[in-house]
Write a structure and sequence with these properties.
mainly alpha; 5 helices
């Protein structure tokens, strides 16, 4: 929810994103199982691409905790 608040605040003045922000805030779809699946996919992609999610998206990694 904290990340959604930050995204909403940052992009609230961009009219073209209104429907996306509204959808994002329509429900809380977070669960531990979803987080673990997301983390697994990101780590697999990092390995394949020889990248590091935390290096590419440090602010987002602070919330998602892919790399701690």
């Amino acid at each position: 929810m904290e990340l959604k608040k930050i995204v909403t605040e940052k992009y609230k003045n961009i009219k073209e994103l209104d429907s996306i922000i509204s959808y994002m805030n329509s429900a809380d779809r977070y669960s531990d199982a979803v987080h673990e699946q997301r983390k697994k996919r990101i780590l697999q992609a990092d390995q394949y691409r020889k990248e590091n999610f935390a290096a590419v998206f440090p602010e987002l990694n602070n919330f998602l905790k892919i790399y701690e």
